[in-house]
Amino acid sequence: MKLYWTNKNSFCGLRHFVLVNELEINNLYFVELVSVLDSNVNLRISKTELENSDNWILGWEELSKNDSITSDYESFNKG
What predicted TM-score, i.e. pTM, was given to this entire model? Predict the structure, then answer.
């Protein structure tokens, strides 16, 4: 199973995620991902989007701290 993913952009200011669940809803397949750094940051996307999009890289890409945790995360945390 492909568990570790890096978002090429960021989601809520974070880029490293772990796949924690796979779901089938009405014959459509989805995955749930949780941030490695903050379990409150999670998302559900289609399995196809994860595996076939240009937005995700399989595995954890080594990034500097500034690239790994963006200013968007600070805004999200103040929320």
Answer: 0.90
